[in-house]
Specification:
With 434 residues, the protein is mainly β. It has 3 domains: 172 residues, Immunoglobulin-like (Sandwich), CATH 2.60.40; 155 residues, Immunoglobulin-like (Sandwich), CATH 2.60.40; 66 residues, no CATH class. It has 5 helices and 27 strands. The strands form 4 sheets. Strands 1, 3, 5, 7, 8, 10, 11, 12 and 14 form a 9-stranded mixed sheet that branches. β24 and β25 form a beta hairpin. α3 packs antiparallel against α5. The chain is elongated and about 100 Å long.
């Protein structure tokens, strides 16, 4: 097979130096896919800090043709923009689809600018090329790929060019794990949330076979979060005119704090599955963050220990694939809690440690006798109604002396107002809380 490489041949015949570690060609190490599918392999380059700019490069990528078949190779993002925002001045790519007995692969030669108008400076993760491979080996195969000097006709040397001199870079081989991709169930991420705020987390699935439904429980720390709703995710909008046939959540399960969820996408049998792929957003869960929640990360876990009302059994952690089900690989989620406002204890109007008779008296004096303004109005709002009135004083007296219910949170520990600033009551200072 004849290839015209022009400048590529020139690159291959230049004097080859021995400096290696400063220039590194490599490929990702974690690519995986089942037999009979295809995936895209990026070819990447690192140039160490302080090293000279590159004027061009050439290389071959070789593999076993009984395991992989290259179908296409295109410029990576770096090659497409390396000449002052435009593609390199010279690019010659050759893709040899090969046969089980053939040696070959993908080869390329690149000159950034034919008149020396642009170079590639030091940097990490330059994307030189993208190669599409069909995965033809049986599942359970590790298909090896390596940089080589035998691909192309004539064969292309693996070098980078600096000031007209060809240098052999460090070359890191890799492999593609040809196998069934596991089902992966995980939480999406969220921005940090303040005490007393709320947060919504998605639950995400990646799957290697068609999926008909799912079930799981999610457990959280009750001292930090309280689940308020669980809703269908965007992936379910394609079923039955916009929703799943069966989607049932229980926000007060036994066996722990959190929720259980069960879902069947469609009972009709038509368009009833999520095809292999992802990420798919199965559901979203919205939580209130307690005003007294400790700062830092709190963990959420997929579990199968939570039960809906008796006599229901614990909800299994399963992904339905029709007449059978699989246990997914799971990852914990987390929410980062940040300080959300002034800490206070509801009912402690006068900032003396604890709640006693002086607090309702101070509240009555403020309301009817021209008493001083509280430094934390929220502390006097017994029921967190958003207003201070005589009912708050009466309820506080009832709690202290007549067996009445306690104040709304935060109580009895210091915390922030769960209503935040939305209730219009200010809390400037509360000396009884740190």
């Amino acid at each position: 097979m004849t290839r015209i490489f022009g400048a590529l041949v020139l690159l291959s015949t230049l004097c080859v130096g021995s400096v290696q570690a400063q220039y590194t060609l490599y490929m990702p190490t974690d690519l995986m896919g089942p037999s009979g599918t295809s995936l895209q392999m990026p070819i990447l380059l690192d140039i160490a800090t302080g090293m000279a700019d590159l004027e061009g490069w050439s290389y071959g990528v070789c593999h076993d043709f009984t395991q992989l078949v290259p179908t296409q190779a295109i410029n990576g993002s770096t090659t497409d923009t390396v000449q002052n925002g435009t593609p390199a001045g010279f690019v010659q790519i050759a893709v040899d689809v090969g046969s089980p007995t053939e040696v070959g692969g993908v080869s390329v030669g690149v000159v950034i600018c034919l008149i020396g108008c642009a170079t590639l400076p030091a940097g990490l993760g330059y994307e030189l090329m993208l190669i599409d491979y069909d995965l033809i080996a049986p599942n359970g195969t590790d298909a090896n790929l390596s940089f080589c000097d035998t691909a192309g006709a004539p064969p292309v040397a693996t070098v980078v060019v600096v000031s007209g001199q060809a240098i052999v870079p460090t070359q890191l081989s890799t492999s593609i794990n040809i196998d069934i991709v596991p089902f992966v169930l995980e939480f999406g991420t969220s921005a940090p949330v303040e005490q007393g705020g709320s947060v919504t987390l998605p639950m995400i699935l990646n799957n290697s076979q068609p999926v008909y439904g799912f079930s799981f429980g999610v457990e959280n720390d009750p001292a930090v979060l309280a689940v308020t709703s669980v809703d269908e995710g965007t992936a379910l909008a394609g079923f039955n005119g916009g929703e799943a046939s069966f989607f049932h959540e229980d926000l007060s399960p036994s066996g722990g704090t959190g929720f259980t969820l069960g879902c069947v996408f469609s009972f009709s049998g038509t368009n009833a599955t999520l095809p292999p792929g992802g990420p798919y957003e199965l559901a979203t869960a919205t939580y209130d963050v307690l005003g007294s929640a400790p700062l830092g990360d709190t963990i959420l876990n997929f579990v199968e220990t939570l039960s809906p009302p008796a006599p229901a059994p614990p909800v299994a952690l399963r992904i339905s694939i029709g007449d059978d089900s699989v246990v997914p690989v799971i990852s914990s989620g987390f929410v980062t809690v940040e300080e959300g406002g002034v800490l206070f204890v509801r009912g402690d109007l006068n900032n003396n440690p604890g709640i006693d008779l002086s607090d309702p008296i101070g509240l009555l004096n403020y309301l009817f006798s021209g008493g001083i303004d509280p430094t934390c109005f929220d502390a006097g709002d017994f029921d967190d109604s958003g207003a201070i009135d005589i009912g708050d004083a009466i309820n506080l007296l009832g709690f202290l002396f007549s067996g009445g219910g306690p104040p709304a949170g935060p109580f009895p520990d210091c915390g922030v107002d769960p209503s935040g600033d939305a209730d219009g009551l200010a809390c400037v200072d509360s000396a009884s809380c740190p």
